Amino acid sequence: MSSALRATLGGTLAVMREEAPGAYGRLCLRLGEVTARLSVDAETVSLSCDGAVVDVDDRPADPRVTIRTDRATLLDLAAARASLVDTILDDRLFARAALPDLVAVEEALVVYLCWAIRNPRARALLRRYRDT
Question: Per the confidence metrics, is the pTM higher than 0.70?
Answer without folding.
Answer: yes
